[in-house]
């Protein structure tokens, strides 16, 4: 069970084990979904329509984009920015899951609401994601810059990127896109946790015998469903965040097509709506939903698996 469950007090795992389970789940998942993440970011940053009918569009489909990136930049392009992405996943997973466990237990101890309620999981999930985002946002900016750059590369190494960005754009560059990130991540993570627990209960109600036998499959399926629903509901803010994070980075984007400068979240949203229409707010949704289904499903799958592993070790030692 993700989050504090008063009916499962025998699941005796420490906060350190919760953090480790969150970190490892993020690490393994990131390796597997990195290619989709790179394609998604390229789609989000493309001003031109994602359509074959637009002759200026560099990318117009998942398979076409995958083939073109492979031909032009080689297979390693799908893991561009992988080191900062892994730092992001490891740190984010640890802080998010630990915060969520602590917050849901605090709610239970305070006797305010049932710690398993949809609203409690939504609120605690959103807050835990905000705490994790504040901790790792600079790494997210670095990951986006690495994934967005073409050839020749502007940044050769992680150290080169940090030094160059700090010198040319100042320390606040590492928190570009923070406002839309926090605005988007709260409902996104809130829906992830609350929908995940709700889908698990619905699965156990619909298939009581299967729910007990196939726990890992249930966690993967319900996590995937929660990821798709959450991402669809909050996707435009994720697109605005990516556009803002590459501000001041226009020279490295020239080979991909048109570039734009934005003064802030509202200006970005306004320009996208005026120039690209409402559908522009959902560019890259297809690979993003595929990524959300895989990443959220795998994160919850691995997290629960490692928590159960630590629980069994604790029982064996006691």
UniProtKB/TrEMBL annotation:
- Membrane topology type: Multi-pass membrane protein
What does the UniProt keyword field contain? Answer: Antiport, Membrane, Mitochondrion, Repeat, Transmembrane, Transmembrane helix, Transport
The Gene Ontology biological process terms listed for this entry are: thiamine diphosphate biosynthetic process
Q: Which reaction does it catalyse?
A: thiamine phosphate(out) + thiamine diphosphate(in) = thiamine phosphate(in) + thiamine diphosphate(out)
Location relative to the cell: Mitochondrion membrane
Q: Which SUPFAM superfamilies match?
A: Mitochondrial carrier
Q: Which GO terms describe its molecular function?
A: antiporter activity; thiamine pyrophosphate transmembrane transporter activity
Each Solcar repeat, start to end: 13-106, 116-202, 214-309
Q: One GO cellular component from the entry?
A: mitochondrial inner membrane
Tell me the Pfam families matching this sequence: Mito_carr (PF00153)
| Purpose of the protein | Mitochondrial transporter mediating uptake of thiamine diphosphate into mitochondria. It is not clear if the antiporter activity is affected by the membrane potential or by the proton electrochemical gradient.
Q: Which family does it belong to?
A: Belongs to the mitochondrial carrier (TC 2.A.29) family.
What is the protein name stated in its UniProt record?
Mitochondrial thiamine pyrophosphate carrier
Q: Which gene encodes it?
A: SLC25A19
């Amino acid at each position: 069970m993700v989050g504090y469950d008063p009916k499962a007090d025998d699941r005796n795992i420490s906060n350190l084990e919760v953090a480790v389970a969150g970190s490892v789940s993020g690490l393994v998942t990131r390796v597997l979904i990195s290619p989709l993440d790179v394609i998604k970011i390229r789609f989000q940053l493309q001003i031109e329509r994602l359509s074959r009918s637009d002759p200026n569009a560099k990318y117009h489909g998942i398979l076409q984009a995958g083939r073109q990136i492979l031909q032009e930049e080689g297979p390693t392009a799908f893991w561009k920015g992988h080191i900062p992405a892994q730092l992001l996943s490891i740190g984010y997973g640890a802080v998010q899951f630990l915060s969520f466990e602590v917050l849901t237990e605090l709610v239970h101890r305070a006797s305010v609401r049932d710690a398993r309620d949809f609203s409690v999981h939504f609120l605690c999930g959103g807050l835990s994601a905000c705490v994790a985002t504040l901790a790792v946002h600079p790494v997210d900016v670095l990951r986006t810059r690495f994934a967005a750059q073409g050839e020749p590369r502007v940044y050769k190494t992680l150290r080169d990127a940090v030094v160059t960005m700090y010198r040319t754009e100042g320390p606040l560059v590492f928190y570009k896109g923070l406002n839309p990130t926090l605005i988007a991540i709260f409902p996104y993570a809130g829906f992830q946790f609350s929908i995940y627990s709700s889908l698990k209960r619905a699965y156990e109600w619909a298939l009581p015998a299967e729910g007990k036998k196939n726990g890992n499959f249930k966690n993967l399926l319900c996590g995937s469903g929660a990821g798709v629903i959450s991402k669809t509901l909050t996707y435009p803010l994720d697109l605005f965040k990516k556009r803002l994070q590459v501000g001041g980075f226009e020279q490295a984007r020239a080979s991909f097509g048109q570039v734009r400068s934005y003064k802030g979240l509202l200006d970005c949203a306004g320009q996208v709506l005026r120039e690209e229409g409402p559908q522009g707010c959902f560019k890259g949704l297809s690979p993003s939903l595929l990524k959300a289904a895989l990443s959220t499903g795998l994160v919850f799958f691995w997290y629960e698996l490692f928590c159960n592993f630590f629980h069994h070790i604790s029982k064996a030692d006691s």
